[in-house]
Predict the structure.
Amino acid sequence: MRETTTTIDYDWLTRPTGDPFADVGGYVIKYLMEKYPDKDVLGLIEYIAKIYVNKWEGKINPFFLNSAITQPAYKGDVKIKETIKYFTSIINETGISEEGFCRISGRKTKLFKAGRDNSLMSGSGTFVNFHHNFQFGMMLSKEMIIRMFFIPFGSIYIGGRIAIIQSNLSEVNEFFVKKNCEANSSNLATSSSEGVLKSEYGIPSNALFQFVDDLLIKKINEATDENENVSLTLFHFTNFGASPEIVIYKLPSTIFRFYSICQSPTLKADWQPFLLSNYNSSKFKGAKYNTSTSNYEISKKEDTEQIGFNNYKLWRNNVLENLLNGKSILKQFLKWGIKHTFNFKIIEIYQIHVQNMKQETLSKIKELALFLTNTDEDAIKKSIKALDGYKSAYELRRFFLKNVVAKNYKDGAKDAIITMEELVYYLFPDDVSWREIRDILLFAIYQELHAKNIHVEAELSAIETEDADTNIN
């Protein structure tokens, strides 16, 4: 049975606070409490300190600057003894403290200095200007400082920097930390633990969406249901030496919902090849994605080199990065759709949930694509070439009036194919770019051609951008 340290509020060691760093440490403590119920908080601190020193050789410098663990003057067991000595002093309240409100928990209690030696991304020493009233550190309760010490065990390296993930759902936050803790425990059991875990994905966007994939597999308390507003934030940082830095990547709920729907059984067969085709690397110029093998290929004089997923997953992915950076992926959809059949439902979900397009607009575009492909191949080719070359909304409006409205009337149709209301509110609304309308129409035209097994030699040139620079077989 764990002895309760009277000066420690155990509830505040693990309860969510909203602070991403403190919450990671709290979930690590919760995991270890369940795994080692006989250890009190000082016992858990000693357990983790021994891992940092004896297994990881004190390599937690990107977390803490000149702590007892990372201080070069301390060697071996001295690092552990000094760590225990420090935490004992704040637990017993013999260290320097003051009464006040904790900057993280908001509790009125005894506060202790938190600088770069015992917390993350904070000022200390000559950087007192980081803190209120020029205090010599960020003033935190002992429980918050203790939580910080456990962060390395629940974190992961991505491309040489530390990464933690925070969500608006506590279940998701705990899942991320617990997953890392379990991996560390497994490595310790096999004597293969040498330091902070390293992600197999070196690029933050790839790693973040892989975490989404893990969530979708686990379906944490139905938190990944398409109706849930799940958002994620990845903190990618280093607290090392004279160059502390942090980059924050935000994955809003709209992107999470769209991505999770695309991974559903009915859409994944279309989405996955499209997504995989958008990896690229400057070191592998000329690599082309083969949909049959799901590999990238580089043709050489004598043979073709195959590059499998374990290698190209380390490359940048245009689609994932654009989704994460709030940029459109419509160009990538169009380029893929020229040569491949693709479920238009994915375009609809993306445009409605992410780009806020009206369903009526998409329905009208599909209707127009059907109309423009119900003719001979030469006329279809002319329409594609014309749409590809347009540089203004005026030209696109003229196209609709001349090639659609006038032709529909000439063909003797009883009903107008485009009404004035549809032209103004759905095809040229104030909140949608005419280029989006044009690109979706071109995509829909090509999908109609795939469905009718018609091949038209009309390569697009003017609308291709670097964002759509993928190589596909």
Notes: Residues 136 and 274 are 53 Å apart (CA to CA).
